[in-house]
Amino acid sequence: MSTIRVTVWNEYRHEKQNEEIAEIYPDGMHEAIAAPLRTQPDMEVRTATLDEPEHGLTDEVLASTDVLTWWGHMAHGEVQDEIVDKVQGRVLDGMGLIVLHSGHFSKIFRRMMGTTCNLKWREAEEKERLWVVEPGHPIVDGIGEFIELEHTEMYGERFDIPQPDTLVFVSWFPGGEVFRSGCCFHRGRGKIFYFRPGHETFPIYYHRDVLKVITNAVRWAAPGEGPMPVFGNAKPLERL
Amino acid sequence: MSTIRVTVWNEYRHEKQNEEIAEIYPDGMHEAIAAPLRTQPDMEVRTATLDEPEHGLTDEVLASTDVLTWWGHMAHGEVQDEIVDKVQGRVLDGMGLIVLHSGHFSKIFRRMMGTTCNLKWREAEEKERLWVVEPGHPIVDGIGEFIELEHTEMYGERFDIPQPDTLVFVSWFPGGEVFRSGCCFHRGRGKIFYFRPGHETFPIYYHRDVLKVITNAVRWAAPGEGPMPVFGNAKPLERL
Amino acid sequence: MSTIRVTVWNEYRHEKQNEEIAEIYPDGMHEAIAAPLRTQPDMEVRTATLDEPEHGLTDEVLASTDVLTWWGHMAHGEVQDEIVDKVQGRVLDGMGLIVLHSGHFSKIFRRMMGTTCNLKWREAEEKERLWVVEPGHPIVDGIGEFIELEHTEMYGERFDIPQPDTLVFVSWFPGGEVFRSGCCFHRGRGKIFYFRPGHETFPIYYHRDVLKVITNAVRWAAPGEGPMPVFGNAKPLERL
Amino acid sequence: MSTIRVTVWNEYRHEKQNEEIAEIYPDGMHEAIAAPLRTQPDMEVRTATLDEPEHGLTDEVLASTDVLTWWGHMAHGEVQDEIVDKVQGRVLDGMGLIVLHSGHFSKIFRRMMGTTCNLKWREAEEKERLWVVEPGHPIVDGIGEFIELEHTEMYGERFDIPQPDTLVFVSWFPGGEVFRSGCCFHRGRGKIFYFRPGHETFPIYYHRDVLKVITNAVRWAAPGEGPMPVFGNAKPLERL
User: Fold this and answer.
1) A-contacting residues of C 3-42, CB under 8 Å?
2) Which bin fits D132, alpha (ψ -120 to 50), beta or left (φ > 0)?
3) What is the pLDDT of residue A40?
4) Which chains touch A (3 or more CB pairs under 8 A)?
5) Are C136 and B165 in contact (CB under 8 A)?
6) Are A70 and A109 in contact (CB under 8 A)?
7) Nearest CA-CA distance, residue A85 and chain C, Å
8) List of E strands, A72-139
9) Which of A82, B151, C35, C112 would be a feasible disulfide site paired with D114, CB 3.0-4.6 Å?
10) Residue from A80, A35, A39, A77 nearest A57 by CA
11) Beta bridge pairs of residue B120
C-alpha cells in the first residue's frame, strides 16, 4: 500500500472574518477536512491556504502532492494565474483534484472544465438529499442510498459543466431544484471529482458521510502508474 | 428550414508565404472549405482570417454566426486572448465550433477542452484511413465504412483531450499509429466537433468525403432552441 | 425534407378495462401520442397495439418504421419474444425507439439496456418538475428550463440503466426523490430515448411540452444515412 | 486489503481437440490466465469450464465469485441460458466481469451489451499494437504507451457495442484496421471490461503486459461497498 500525499487547500478567509463561521471551523475548514484524512493509514496530509506565499502551493508542495482538495469562495479572483497554470499542469500530469462546493467557481475548476461552471443558488438553510445514481462506483463505498444534510445552501441546475465521465450523485432540494452533485472527470492523466456539499455557515465538513465520500474520492483520484505519453514528432513504428 | 450562418475562419498565412501551398489553395484554405457549404440551400457562408481587424471576428460577425469553423497552425499565438474570450462565450451560448486538423493546438480549442490537446505527429505523406465507429451518428451521413486519404500528415495517440461525448472516427496510419480523429463534445449550450483531416501541403479540402463530413458537422453543430439557463440567486419554486 | 415514418405502439389494455382511464384516453393513449405527430409535415404516423396479430408489428410494419414509440405497463409479459427479437434487430439496424414511462420495464427496453431497468415508484398524484440539464440538445428545442406536471406517478433513483450517452432531463418530486427522466442512448445504428412522463390515470399525453419533447425525440431518433457496417471475415486493405 | 475471489472461466474445447493448441496451453487457457493471478497476495483464484456440471458455475461458485473472467469461442451456443441468467444477475449485483477476445460473441457479453457485438476478423498472424488512449486509468498501471503482440488474429471496426463508459485501448493492425480493444462499462452495480488480446493458436496469455492488464482489470472490477439499491413501491421521504 503506497502512501497518498494529500494537500488540503482552503481560501481561509470566511473563518477569519466572521465570528459565527469561526465558531464552526475554529482552525479553518481545511483542518476539518484534513482531520479524517489524517487518520487514514495510507494518507499523508498537509494543508495550504490562500494567504501563504504562493498560496502555499510552491513548486515543492505541488510536486509532492498526489491529490489536492480545493475550497474557495469569496476570493477566487485573488488566486494568481501563475499558480493556476501550475496546478492545471500537475492535474494533467496525474495529480488528483477534489473540488468542493463553492470551488465550482474557482479559476482552476473553470480552467479544467472550459465552461462557466455557473449554477443557481439560494441561502435558505434548506435540506439536501444526495442520491447515489451509480452504486458500483468506489466513491460511494460505505454510503447508503442517499446522504441527507439538514441545512445547506441550495445549488440548482443548469450547472454549466461538461457532461461528467461518471455522474455519481444527484441532489434534491425542498425548494424544487435538482443538482448533479457528485461528478467524475478524467483530464489528461489526472482525475477530478466535484462534490457539492459544504458551506461556510454549516458544519457540513463534520458529517460522517461527507467525509467518507471525500476520503473515497482521494483514493479514487490518486495518480496511477499508467504511461507518461510522449508528444511531438514521432518516428514511424513500421516501415513506410 | 432555417438558415445556418457559417463563418469559415482561416489563419491564412501558409498560403501567402509558400508557393506550393498557394498552388493548392490559391484563394486560401478557407475558400476551399467554404465552397461546398455555399452550395447548401440551408447555409449562408462568409470567411474571416487572422490578419483582418479583430481577426475578422468582430462582435457583429460573432453575434451573427451559428457555426464557426477553425483552421490555424503557425500563428496560434497571434490570436488575441480577447477574441478567444469572445469566441468561447459564443460557444457556451450555443454557437457551433468545428475545429480542423492543426486547430487542435489553437487557443480556442485548448480553452474549451481544459487540456494540452497535444499529440504525436509526422510529416511523411502517409495514407490515413478514418474508420467510422458510430455509424448511427448524423455526422457520417453519406459516408462509407471509412474515408481514405492518400497523403496526409500523421497524428497519433495519446491525443490529450477529455474523452469525447461521442467518438465518431478513429484513424489508422501505416506507420503504426491510431488517432481519435472525429470527436463530438457538448460545452455549455454549444456543440464542438474536432475533425482531423487537412494539412496545408495536401489538397485534402477538395476531398468529397472530407467536405461531406464538414457539411454534416455544420448541421449537427448548429444551435438549437433549447432553454437559455438562468444563473445566480434563485427564489424557491416550492414553499419552504 | 424526407418523411419520418412513425409507429406509435401501445399496450392498450388499461383504456379498455378501466372507465376512468377510458375517459381520459377514449381512443387509447396511442391516439393521444399520435395526434400531434400527425400534424407534422415531415411525419407519417400509424399505430399498433398489443392485441393485434403480431402486436401490430408485422415484418412489413417494422420494415417501414423509422421510429417506434413504446408504451406498456400491465402486460409486458404478453409481448412475444419473437417480436422483441425483431424490434431489437430493427433498432440495431437504425430504427429509432422512444420508450415512454412504464415502458422502462418492457422486454424491449430491458433487452436493449442489459440491466433490470428497475426503479422506485409511488402513486400519490405528486407534482413532477423535469429540469433540463443539457440545454444544447435538440430534444429540448422549444422547452423552457423545466417542465412541470401537476399530478404524476413518482419514479425515483436508483434507476438501474447503463449511464446514458447523454442525460437530458432530471426530475424532482416533492416526496424527496430525483430521477434521470430523459436519457439518450446509441445502440447499434439506432438511437433510443427514454422519457419518463406519462401515466394511464393522468392526462399527461395532452401536455404541450411532453408532446413537444416526443416530437423532437422522433426527429432526433430518425435513422441517418451512415454506413451499414460489414461484419465477419475481412480481407486486408493493406499488403501484409 | 480484502481478498478478491476470482473465477477464471474457459470453454476449454480447442485445447482438448487440437494438438497444436494443446501444446501452447497444455492445461487449458484458464490455467495460463489463472497463473499470474494466483501469485497476487490479494487474490484467490479458481477455474471453471464449460463441460463441468452447470459449466462449473453453480450457485455456490457464483455467490462466492467477486470477479469472473470469460473466454469462449466455438461453443457459445452450448452455454445454458439459465446459467447466463444467473451470471447476468450476479454482474448487476456487483460481480466484476472480464470478457476476453472471442468472448465478444458470448451469450453473456451480448446480453449485457444489448447489441450484436459483431466485428470484422481475419486470421493472418498479424501484429497488433494496442495504444493506451486513457493513461490515467488504473487498468494501464505499469503499461507503456502501447502493447505489441507479434502474431494475432485481427479484429476490426465496426465493433457493434454501446459506446464504452471509458475507452482505454485502441488497436492498430497492419492490414489497415483499428479496433476499440479495451473497453470499460458499468452495468447495474457491476463493472465489465472487454479486452481483445488472446487467441487459441497464439501464446498470448503468457505475454507480460496482457497478464498485467488482466490483473489490473480484476482489481478495477472487484465489487465495491456502495449501496444496494431498494426498488419498488416507496414511501415518501417528505410530507406530501
Assistant:
1) none
2) beta
3) 98
4) B, C, D
5) no
6) yes
7) 29
8) 96-100, 120-132
9) C112
10) A80
11) A232, B156
Closest among D115, D65, D55, D117 to D90, alpha carbons compared: D65
Of the partner residues A132, A158, A163, the one whose CB lies closest to the CB of residue C132: A158
Buried b (16+ CB within 10 A) or exposed e, A181-210: bbbbbbbbbbbbbbbbbbbbbbebbebebb
- The ranges of chain C with pLDDT < 70 are 1
Q: Do A111 and B112 touch (CB under 8 A)?
A: no
Specify the pTM.
0.98
Residue B231, class by beta-carbon neighbours within 10 Å (0-12 exposed, 13-18 middle, 19+ buried)? middle
Nearby residues of C208 by Cβ (< 8 Å), 6 or more positions away: none
Name the residue facing B172 among D158, D166, D172 (closest C-beta): D172
Q: Which of A129, A190, A224 sits opposite D138 (nearest CB)?
A: A224
Which residues, 6 or more positions from A212, have their beta carbon under 8 angstroms from its beta carbon? Answer: A141, A142, A143
C224 and B143: CB-CB below 8 Å? Answer: no
Length of chain B: 240
To the nearest whole angstrom, how far is the Cα of C161 from the nearest Cα of chain A? 10
Give residue-wise pLDDT tens across range C200-236. Answer: 888 999 999 999 999 999 999 999 999 999 999 999 9
Size of interface C-D (CB pairs under 8 A): 124
Note the pLDDT of residue C1: 58
Q: CA dihedral defined by B217, B222, B227, B231, rounded to 10 degrees?
A: 80
D140 → closest Cβ in A186, A188, A226: A226
Chain B interface includes C144 (CB < 8 A): yes
For residues D220 and C10, give the distance between their C-alpha atoms in angstroms, rounded to a whole number. 42
pLDDT higher than threshold 80 for residue B1: no
DSSP-assigned states of every residue in chain C: -PPEEEEEEE---HHHH-HHHHHH-TT-HHHHHHHHHHT-TTEEEEEEETTSGGGG--HHHHHT-SEEEEE-STTGGGS-HHHHHHHHHHHHHT-EEEEEGGGGGSHHHHHHHSS----EEEEEEEEEEEEES-TTSGGGTT--SEEEEEEEEEEESPP-SPPPSEEEEEEE-TTS-EEEEEEEEEETTEEEEEE----TTS-GGG-HHHHHHHHHHHHHHS---------EE---SS--
Site from A158, A169, A172, A196 to mutate, C interface, most C CB atoms within 10 angstroms? A172
- Kindly identify which residue of chain B lies nearest to residue A127, measuring between CA atoms: B240
Q: Are C65 and C5 in contact (CB under 8 A)?
A: yes
Provide ipTM, 2 decimals: 0.97
Q: Is B92 on the interface with A (CB under 8 A)?
A: yes
Tell me which chain B residues have a C-beta less than 8 angstroms from the C-beta of A111. Answer: 114
Cα separation of D88 and C231, whole Å? 26
Q: CB–CB of A157 and C170 under 8 A?
A: yes
Q: What is the mean pLDDT of chain B?
A: 97
Contact C98, C219 (CB under 8 A): no
Provide the percentage of residues in chain D whose pLDDT is more than 70: 100
All residues of chain B having their beta carbon less than 8 Å from the beta carbon of residue A172 are none
Comparing alpha-carbon positions, the chain C residue that sits nearest to B144 is: C227
Decide: B10 and B29 in contact? Cβ < 8 Å. yes
| Predicted confidence (pLDDT) per residue in B150-176, tens digit | 999 999 999 999 999 999 999 999 999
Using a CB–CB cutoff of 8 Å, tell me whether D223 touches chain A: yes
Contacts D118 to C, Cβ<8 Å: 229, 231-232
